[in-house]
Amino acid sequence: MQLKLDALEAHLAKGLKGLYVVYGDEHLLAQEACDRIRATARAVGFTDRTVFTVERGFDWSALIGATQSMSLFGDRQLIELRIPTGKPGKEGAEALKTLAAADNPDVVTLVTLPRLDSATQKSAWFTALTGPGVALKIDPVERAQLPMWVNQRLSLQGQRVEPGEEGRRALVFIAERVEGNLLAAHQEIQKLGLLYPAGVLSFEQIHDAVLNVARYDVFKLNEAMLTGDVGRLSRMLDGLKGEGEAAVLVLWALVDEVRTLLRIKRGVASGKPLATLLRENRVWGPRERLIGPALSRVTEEALEKALSLAARLDRQVKGLSGSAGTRGSEPPPDPWAGMFELAMAVAQGKPASKAAAAPARPRR
Question: Where does the record place the DNA polymerase III subunit delta C-terminal domain (predicted)?
Fold first, then answer.
């Protein structure tokens, strides 16, 4: 049985099940969900807790034995099984099937896993667990949802932002500084609760208190490019540079998006349906909604010039600038400035040479 995270509280109020599976990479939310299950288990008498962590050479028979035995003191027990890799192996897969089939009213089992790909979610061992058990998939809080998430967390501690545009500005300010780092976001929100009393928080109070703890994912750059969010694009590139991300990887992510857009742009021009082109180019999820507006904004010329710039940047980041065969004007001396120029070709829909003449990048 699949259960949404926001339905967990109501589910636990109706009674505890014998098996829970919590999986996903958003560690704060996964930890909070597990804490609620643990607290409910303790409240109804499952006071004996045993934790197993699957590592190389793990003894699966010990796990099965624990789930089938009674505590020496007669207490009901909570057994936690942590599989950090998400890959139990052949022996583990069979043990998990046995675990799922067990029916011991004196045992509640909590299995935690990282984010699983679609193939793993269809595996025999996982479907065996989720059949009799309750599965909670912990999805990440996307950038667009982050201001609302922050607002909800503030309300839990009796605080709120000012109404109207000033409040929206405050929530966006917080979101910009905690993006990609939900645990730190939680800590910054708690800090606001310690610094200021319950009630309305002004933008000035938030501005003075919230640190920049954002952590950027190179594979989220395409969202900022496709939406034309220049400010976010600038912050992400600055943040990735500051964190020491490899320029080669960042350039690859940018170029991959430019190539995808160009293939789809040419396909649409030749009369192919957009839906077919999206499938062929493996575009789905949030990107699927963003591609259409980006295609109407950016020209084929801009994309072709962006790829030309990318070729020169590729030689630059590999230390081959000035080698024979380089065509076109030299990119900026700092490859990160060149990558911003490349991304702006999509974000603003202008050829790279014109995008370079755009207003100076906003600083964080």
Answer: 219-318
